[in-house]
Write a structure and sequence with these properties.
- This protein is mainly beta.
- It has 3 domains: about 150 residues, Cathepsin D, subunit A, domain 1 (Beta Barrel), CATH 2.40.70; about 150 residues, Cathepsin D, subunit A, domain 1 (Beta Barrel), CATH 2.40.70; about 80 residues, Pdz3 Domain (Roll), CATH 2.30.42.10.
- Helix content is about 15%, strand content about 40%.
- It contains 10 helices and 30 strands.
- The strands form 5 sheets. Strands 1, 3, 4, 5, 6, 7, 8, 9 and 10 form a 9-stranded mixed β-sheet that branches.
- The radius of gyration is 22 Å and the shape is globular.
Length: about 425
């Protein structure tokens, strides 16, 4: 049985994820298209706001660690902060509010709409996501029967019974050069696209602020255009624990909409490759997830009536991921027994300060490595603040040395046109 990639993908931004259990894809991997509601008892709902022919105001959402967070009430309780996740087939709540919201049926109000669910799984979402404000995930069982629009440029979201092109045509903050990509729904939304010059399928996941690329796909990218890939990213997740590399990809492209300079983590094929067999019939492959780093350049609409995904970029968008990571120039071995250095990037501060492969890091920023969990440890390898120094103490041949490293632009994507 496969668990939700959407819930898995909540960890890509640097927050470990252990999601509610969600339905697996069809047993034969055949997939379904056009879009359909998740299996089980269909939710009941009231109609969203009627289209007006003017750019919708929608409902505001907050960006938390790259994810769209909005307010939800359940059975009259709340409001609570939920992540709207296009990669999650079903919704879930944190254990801390389970008794407060009461028993089924669950009447959920959000984005000017009301949906009633017969099931709502509870788990330790707050601890798993490391986002204190978040106590739930809004999966496809709450919004999948509608046309969903996430207007990232304005941080607004709205639902419609039927997509109205006139509404979006009235949005003056957009370029008004929309593109559309047919999607296939098989528990998850899949769209065809391209990662640099490798063609395949993306899993659309607004809950993933960091890309996730299959190891075999990344190996092909590296062979064609080598780049720095930092080692030692320990990743515990509900569907399995694995070690990853962090790197930058020159471009992601869907329906002619190209976004450059996105960061990604490598993922074993056995963990992430959920592409249904029906989409592999002509040799197609899965590339990875289409994260919010890509999606937030656009107002996107998942139109259930046509099984299409619509993209229109903001006028002010540079179509480049806004986040930038600098690195100190070393990577860890894939082990939790100590913190040994497995990689030194040529020309980096780590090399200039004499660090070598095999050195054992014993302290980071004055804190014993033994007190830092394996997942958090890897995120000391990078920083979004170039001027931020990193002080670490390492041991070599029983001698301890303390150095202060500076970050530099080591993770730039390769040149690609």
């Amino acid at each position: 049985m496969r668990l939700s990639i959407g819930a898995l993908a909540l960890l890509w931004s640097g927050a470990c994820s252990s999601p509610p259990v969600e339905p697996s894809p069809t047993e034969d991997g055949s997939g379904t298209n056009p879009a359909q509601a998740p299996s089980g008892t269909p939710p009941t709902s009231t109609s969203p706001v009627t289209p007006t022919g003017v750019c919708p105001e929608g409902v505001a959402f907050q960006e938390l660690s790259g994810k769209a967070a909005l307010q939800v009430t359940i059975n009259g309780k709340g409001p609570y902060t939920f992540i709207l996740d296009t990669g999650a087939p079903t919704s879930g709540i944190d254990d801390t509010i389970a008794s407060e919201v009461g028993a089924a049926p669950f009447e959920m109000n959000f984005a000017e709409s009301k949906v009633t669910l017969s099931k709502l799984a509870a788990s330790d979402i707050k601890a798993a996501l490391r986002l204190d404000k978040v106590v739930g995930i809004l999966g496809r069982d709450t919004w999948g029967q509608y046309a969903l629009t996430l207007d990232y440029p304005r941080n607004r979201v709205w639902l419609r019974e039927k997509h109205d092109e006139q509404e979006l045509a009235a949005c003056s903050h957009l370029r008004q050069k929309p593109s559309r990509a047919p999607y296939v729904l098989s528990s998850y939304f899949y769209v065809k696209g391209r990662m640099e010059d490798v063609d395949g399928w993306f899993l659309v996941d607004s809950g993933a602020s960091l890309g996730a690329t299959l190891e075999t796909v990344f190996a092909t990218l590296q062979q064609r255009r080598p780049r720095t890939a930092l080692q030692g990213f320990y990743t515990p997740a509900a569907i399995g624990t694995f070690w990853a590399q962090l790197a930058a990809v020159a471009s992601y492209e869907v329906a002619g909409q190209r976004v450059t300079g996105l960061y990604t983590r490598t993922v074993p094929n056995s963990v992430l490759d959920t592409l249904p067999r029906s989409l592999r019939s002509n040799g197609d492959i899965m590339l990875g997830v289409l994260p919010s780093g890509y999606l937030k350049q656009f107002a996107i609409t998942l139109d259930t009536a046509t099984s299409e995904m619509r993209f229109d970029a903001a006028k002010e968008s540079t179509l480049t991921e806004s986040r930038h990571w600098d690195a100190y120039g070393f990577g860890f071995e894939a082990t939790l027994e100590g913190a040994r250095i497995a990689q030194i990037v040529p020309g980096s501060s780590a090399e200039q300060n004499g660090l070598k492969v095999g050195d054992e890091v014993v302290e980071i920023e004055g804190q014993a490595v033994s007190k830092i969990d394996g997942y958090s440890r890897a995120w000391y390898l990078v920083t979004t603040t170039k001027t931020a120094p990193l002080t670490l103490t390492y041991k070599r041949a029983e001698k301890q040395t303390t150095v202060t490293l500076s970050a530099s632009d080591l993770l730039s994507p390769p040149a690609f046109k």
